[in-house]
Amino acid sequence: MVADASVGASHSAQRPVIAMRNVVKQYRMGDTEVHALRGISFEIAQGDFVAIMGTSGSGKSTLMNIVGCLDVPTRGHYWLDGVDVRTLDDDDLARIRNRKIGFVFQSFNLLPRMSAIANVELPLTYAGVHPRQRRARAAVALQSVGLGQRMHHVPSEMSGGQQQRAAVARAIVTNPALILADEPTGNLDTESSIDVMSVFAALHSQGRTVVLITHEDDIAAYAQRIVKLRDGQIVDDHRRDASGARRTHVAHAEAGQGAFQ
Ligand code: ADP
Ligand code: MG
């Protein structure tokens, strides 16, 4: 078992996929300011599997929107795969989303009239990949989530768990630096949830970086690291060993020390 210090050292040795320093997000509601995030500083290393937890209103979606480049911080720094997102305009942000992030949503968001393979091909179409390559890569992604036999079915011909696995295939087909899932099992029964979580676990064991939001302990238990939010701040951050028996606290860099400075 490694001590806290060596865990930190081994993870700071490689460039983090996500690094935040003092990220603040405020929303204006008429005359009042809503402090959704109150100074978030943390890093996520390549290949990690992280669950972000917290009660409703704790800032999970706000944090995920910033991580996913759907929104930008009011203050503070965010580097995605080494790129400072403050330097990007809207077009750059759209491009970086397409290239670096695979999104999985609670509601699957598959296009209903399209077959699974056509849905999975879509991000490759946006990325300008040649049609023949698109089909081949989409087929590989679907096989890797166990849907090789369902490629030509439309979403209504698939179970919820199968639809979410197709959505995961769509998320990984561009080979993104990060898979970002917001309550991916929120609409699934227990059996389908286990099914989908095993796919995330397999992706993690292949070296993919996975970040998921959940408020369910048994879903978070699949992750190696659990970050807890309360009132827009990180109140707990720990990692489990393989057996789940031991937990080590994850230290955060002091405010102001940037990962890329
Ligand atoms: P969670 O996803 O954990 O439920 P959110 O990130 O959605 O939390 O919200 C955090 C806080 O920010 C809440 O107080 C919420 O009401 C507020 N908030 C979120 N989005 C907006 C918005 N677009 N405008 C104003 N307030 C918002
Ligand atoms: Mg939310």
What labels would you give this structure?
261 residues; 7-stranded mixed β-sheet; Rossmann fold; binds magnesium ion; alpha/beta; disordered C terminus; 8 helices; single chain; disordered N terminus; binds adenosine-5'-diphosphate
Write the layout of secondary structure elements.
Elements: H1 4-12, E1 16-29, E2 32-45, E3 49-53, H2 60-67, E4 75-80, E5 83-84, H3 90-100, E6 101-105, H4 116-126, H5 131-144, H6 160-172, E7 178-182, H7 190-205, E8 210-213, H8 217-220, E9 225-230, E10 233-240, E11 247-249
Parallel strand pairs: 3-8, 3-9, 6-7, 7-8
Antiparallel strand pairs: 1-2, 1-4, 4-5, 9-10, 10-11
Bound molecules: adenosine-5'-diphosphate and magnesium ion (MG).
Question: What features would you describe in this structure?
Answer:
With 261 residues, the chain is α/β, with parallel strands linked by helices. The chain has a domain at 47-61 and 91-249: Rossmann fold (3-Layer(aba) Sandwich). Helix content is 33%, strand content 28%. It is built from 8 helices and 11 strands. It has helices at residues 4-12, 60-67, 90-100, 116-126, 131-144, 160-172, 190-205, 217-220; strands at 16-29, 32-45, 49-53, 75-80, 83-84, 101-105, 178-182, 210-213, 225-230, 233-240, 247-249. The strands form 2 sheets. Strands 6-7-8-3-9-10-11 form a 7-stranded mixed sheet, with helices on both faces. Strands 2-1-4-5 form a 4-stranded antiparallel sheet, with helices on one face. α5 (131-144) crosses α6 (160-172). The protein is globular, with a radius of gyration of 18 Å. Residues 1-12 and 256-261 have low confidence and may be disordered. The structure holds adenosine-5'-diphosphate and magnesium ion. Residues 60-61 line the site of magnesium ion. Adenosine-5'-diphosphate binds next to β1, β2 and α2.
